[in-house]
Design goal:
This protein has about 300 residues and is α/β, with parallel strands linked by helices. The protein is about 35% helix and about 20% strand. The strands form 3 sheets. Strands 9-8-7-10-11-12 form a 6-stranded parallel beta sheet, with helices on both faces. A 3-stranded antiparallel beta sheet has the order 1-5-4, with no helix packed on it. Strands 3-2-6 form a 3-stranded antiparallel beta sheet, with no helix packed on it. Helix 2 links the parallel strand 8 and strand 9. Helix 1 runs parallel beside helix 2, helix 3 runs parallel beside helix 5 and helix 5 runs parallel beside helix 7. It is globular, with a radius of gyration of 21 Å. The N and C termini lie far apart (about 60 Å).
């Protein structure tokens, strides 16, 4: 029972010991993402970071392994399961919703909680099967647990820091997510592949979503880039994506990991993050703010 109504933390009386888990409210699964204190002790009060809780609510608190959603709470899961990283926005959100519409089970992973939950809610509203896991692709324990628990048909990696200007002013985050995060996913997928039988191995895919910016700048009148064009990244962002592309290629040739890499150009559409050109222009125009145009 929620004893205090506070937007950041709730107080729970737990009658069973566990380290991390989930609580259920009105048949919707929410992940407990933080416990204050090293261990949860039966009979004692512990602060738990949650969402959508008000004073007086009662929750059924259940143990579960980190990142292993209880599918019984969202309906029977049949068909193939896909882990979609970066599911909170842009292409990741659009792909997660489309996969669910086509009958797939979707496990969305993103560090942006509110938008990730919005994608999850959009899928459920249409009757799709989805669960959102709030987490970082650089968390090796979480990623390994997801692969073990869900036995996915594929991991589709949309997760990335992807804003060129921000990469110039703060490149560290781009190296952490785009390079180290991709490495963590690849390593977990490599270990997971070894646990599969031959038929499952042949059906598994690691899909890495990259960018055409790894090829550099296209001169006026020059032919379009192809996959045979040499890498010529010109920003910390494109360099970090080029590095991740090299890692993906290396895991294919060294370990036989079945990978697919896409190097798409700019995309736009529903769920576009507001820092990108089209939604930024629209939002700024509606607010009467300047419309920034970059370039020479």
């Amino acid at each position: 029972r929620v004893a205090e109504d506070d937007r950041a933390f709730r107080i729970f009386d737990l009658d069973d010991a566990y380290e991390r888990g989930a609580f259920v409210r009105r048949n919707h699964v929410h992940e407990v993402i933080d416990l204050r204190g090293a261990d949860v002790i039966p009979g004692q009060r512990h602060e738990v970071r949650t969402s959508e809780a008000i004073a007086g609510d009662t929750f059924d608190v259940r143990y579960r392994a980190v990142g292993a959603p209880d599918w019984s709470e969202v309906g029977s899961m049949v068909g193939e399961t896909y882990i979609v990283t970066g599911s909170a926005r842009g292409m990741g959100a659009a792909a997660a919703i489309r996969l669910a519409r086509e009958g797939a089970n979707v496990v969305g992973v993103d560090w942006i909680r509110d938008l990730g939950e919005a994608t999850d809610a959009a899928i459920r509203k249409e009757g799709g099967k989805s669960v959102f896991v709030h987490g970082d692709i650089g968390d090796a324990a979480l990623v390994s647990q997801l692969l073990t628990s869900h036995q996915p048909r594929a991991v589709i990696n949309f997760a990335a820091e992807s804003h060129v200007d921000r990469s110039i002013h703060g490149p560290g985050a781009f190296m952490k997510t785009n390079v180290e995060g991709t490495f963590t996913l690849l390593e977990a997928a490599r270990v997971h592949l070894q646990s599969l039988d031959l038929a499952e191995r042949e059906g598994f895919r690691f899909v890495h979503v990259s960018t055409d910016e790894v090829y550099g700048s296209l001169a006026p009148g020059a032919p379009a880039f192809t996959e045979d064009h040499p890498f010529e990244p010109n920003s910390p962002y494109s360099a970090s994506k080029a590095a991740s592309d090299h890692l993906v290629r290396a895991y294919r040739h060294t370990y036989g990991l079945p990978v697919l890499t896409t190097n798409c150009s700019n995309n736009y559409g529903p769920y576009h993050f507001p820092e990108k050109l089209i939604p930024l222009m629209i939002v700024n125009a509606l607010a009467g703010k300047p419309l920034p145009v970059y370039g020479d």
